[in-house]
Structures are given as C-alpha cells and as structure tokens.
Amino acid sequence: MNKLLEQEYDSYIQTLSQPVYRGFRVNTKKVNSEDFFKWFNIPCHASPFAKNAYILDSEDTYGNSLAHALGFMYMQEPSAASAVEVLNPEENDWVLDLCAAPGGKSSQIVERLNSSGLLISNEIEAKRAQILVSNFERLGISNAIITNSTPDKICKTLEGCMDKVLVDAPCSGEGMFKKESQALVDWSPQHVKSCAIRQRQILDFAYLALKENGILVYSTCTYSSEENEETIIEFIKKHPDMELMKIDVPWGRMGLGLDSQIDTTSCRRIFPMDDGEGHFIAKLRKKGPTVSKRLQVMTSKKIPDAVYQFINHEGIDTNINLYMNNNRIYAGKHPFYDLKDNYVLRNQVLIGEVNNERFEPHHHLYTSTLFTSAIKNEIICTEEEVESFRKGNTICKEYQKGYVGIKIHDNFIGFGKSDGSIIKNKLPKGLRIR
Predict the structure, then answer these.
(1) Which pLDDT band holds residue 317 (cuts at 50, 70, 90)?
(2) Where are the alpha helices (DSSP H) in 70-217?
(3) Rounded Cα–Cα distance for residues 4 and 13 (Å)
(4) Is residue 44 among the annotated active site residues?
(5) Containing H/E element for 236?
(6) On the CB side of 227, how many CA atoms lie within 13 Å of its CA?
(7) What integer best gives the mean pLDDT of the chain?
(8) Quick one: how far is CA 8 from the chain centroid?
C-alpha cells in the first residue's frame, strides 16, 4: 500500500482507525426518495457514487426497521454502488450479473431497467444464492431470473445474448478489512494471486455471454494491482476485440498505468480517502462479431383453474405469462426461457403453489412491484398493527373471507387469510421479528 499510494499512505493508515463507511440506497422501484424521507427519519447525506444512494451519519443499524422490511432500502457500502452507475443499464437491456449475491448491484440494475428488459442474476454458492432470493423478494424484483450455476455453464448457455455483463468478482477483499474481520484473517499474498487466477477465468466466460458491442464492467473491492489493472491487461491481450473505455465520473481517481499499450488509467479506483471503503472498476466494449444463441421458450403444463380463479378474484391482469413447475406457479412479463442444465432458483415472480387443486399464494406475489397496484384485496394498517404483524400475530379486523394483502405506505408487507373477523398471519417465519 505504501508503494501504491506514496504520499497518501499516511492518510490511508489513518482511515483504518476510523468507523467503516455505511450506506444505503433507496429502492425507487417501491418508493421515491421524497416519500422515503417523509416516512422515515434516517440521518444521512447524499453519496457521490450513485443516484438515490446515501451515506449514514450514525452507527445505527436498520436491518430490522420497517423501511428495510418493506424493501424501501438496501444497505450497501457506499462505493459498492459505483459499478452499476458505470455499467449504466438502459431500458430493454438484457443484463447478466455473473457473481450476484447478496444482490445489491442486481437490485440497482433492476431500478435502471425501469420494468423493462431482463436481468439474470447468477451465484455459484448455494447458501449465498438463497440470500439473493430473499433479497429479491423483499425488494419486489420481478423481471429477473436467479440461477445457481458456475460461470462457465451459465455463460455458455447465454452465449452472445447479453447487452451488458457485470462481473463483481470474488477478490481478496482489502476494501472489506474494517467491515469483516475474516477478510483480514484470510488475506495473504498467495490469496491475492489465487484470486487473480480465478478472476481471469471468470472474465473469459463473461466474454462469451456478450453480444457484439456489448458492455462488460469488471469490479472488485480490493486494492491490489494483480487483481485489478493486471487482470484487465491480461484479459485484453487474450481478447483483443475488447476495447477499454474511459470512465468519465467525478468521483474516485484514475487507475494505475502499468502497460505501454493498454491504458488502464481509464479505469477507476476508490480508496477509503474517497468516501468509500474501496472499489476498482473497468469498463469494456466487445467490438468483434459474436455467435448469438437463441434461447428457447419453455412450454408450461396446463395451469390449473384454481390459479385463474385466484387471479380473477384479486383483479390481477391476466395478460401476463404463467408457468408451472413442480406445482409452483410463476408469473412475469417475459416468456419463460429454457436455461438448459443451469439450476434456476427463481424465474421472475413465484406467485404461489397448487396443492390438492387449491391455490395458495406466495409472499413474493405481494412484495413484487409487478402486482403491488394490481391486487385489490388489501387492508391498510397502522405502523403499530404492522409491527404486531411482523411478530407473527393475527390482525383483528373484519374483512371478507379469503387472502388479503397487509399494506402500509402504499406497499405490502405481506399477506394473511381472513375468516371474516380475524386475519391469520402468512408472513414467512424467517421474516418475523421478536
């Protein structure tokens, strides 16, 4: 670090004894920033790295807050939001987030797609992939597919299909030292080298998924040149049709210039002296032609009548695509694509399950922004009632028999089942608070 930072080394050392930068983004798929701050008093100031992103001014935690439970906010280290700003997803883009868990960057991509396009979020580790599913439900994400696959397998399936690919690569985590003590325990020069080898393999697979003129953003939360500029240099030498693009942003600083032919100063670095724990970002364009595979659309088994009866009863627009797999019913704006032997954890929105010819809705149906304004059977609750509901309690209110969404601040926290006078709690047990 002394060699890397030279005159700023002392400033960097000072940051190690300072509190970790903590921040969040407002999930604009569910709430605008004006309403968010009208309803919730959270001391913070604007982050320089992304739109609707903020740096916390206190050390309070908000993981159990109502704002968090509603999916109105995503807790995120401030500089981590920078990579998607550089990727700049646009409406109708097909985007692959290749190393997606826990989901902060994926949720940011979805906001930029603005209910159009398609996101495929992949995570190789099964436990982390389940966290991804949970966050997608909470944040109301609908136009996305979650896969638990290896980078080579998913990228070969998506060969030439993607407008944009984000590789937020597993790294030695030097920017995580203050946040996660295990990152410091795990660090070694050999670990840096092994990470660099793995990162270069992942980039080779990401290359396959890109369309001609597709954009690849590579990011890490580490400072080492081996995992950052040197990895990019080796990648471009192996794939000369990849063009390194200049990142024109007001934050951070230039990358290191390590090669006379490949100008990696066009990359971007963020250090703890720059209002974030640390990030590296490179942006590249695929200039050469590529073979594009065409994804096949899967044909669903016959959807049971009970599903349509529920949809009609709720007033949900029937002009959506439905797909049934193992008695689970999925819905979405997109067709349901065949991703071959990649393990798909969530295909757009899981709306419910059919058991013994009866349909029972799923929590994702009520949290998804695709259905928030469509569901007509709802009860508006106070904060006190919602807090009781989050503890697993019933709601004593008269309502017609059947399923009913529990709503506050124009969004559902979950749902229950009414017998006419009491609403039985259907909030998943893992989401309940003490």
Answers:
(1) confident
(2) 82-87, 104-113, 126-139, 151-157, 181-186, 189-209
(3) 13
(4) no
(5) helix 229-238
(6) 28
(7) 95
(8) 33
**C-alpha torsion 71→428→59→57, nearest 10:** 10
Q: Find the catalytic residue in 155, 161, 221, 381.
A: 221
**For residue 83, what is the DSSP state?**
H
Whether pLDDT at 54 is above 90: yes
Q: Which residue is it, tokens 């029937």? A: 318
The predicted structure's pLDDT at residue 229 = 98
Q: Which residues contact 25 (CB under 8 A, 6 or more apart)?
A: 50, 52, 53, 54, 73, 74, 76, 81, 104, 107, 108
Which sign, positive or negative, has the C-alpha torsion 185, 186, 191, 196? negative
Query: Could you tell me where the DSSP H helices lie in 284-396?
Result: 305-314, 363-367, 383-390
Range of lowest pLDDT (181-185, 274-278, 333-337): 181-185
Alpha helices in 239-352 (DSSP H): 305-314
Q: What is the DSSP letter of 303?
A: P
Element holding 232 (H helix, E strand) = helix 229-238
- The first and second tokens of residue 90, run together, are 């646009």
pLDDT of residue 386: 97
Write down how long the chain is: 434
Closest CA to 55 of 63, 43, 44: 44
pLDDT tens for each residue of 271-285: 999 999 999 999 999
- Burial (0-12, 13-18, 19+ Cβ within 10 Å), 205: buried
Q: Are 415 and 363 in contact (CB under 8 A)?
A: yes
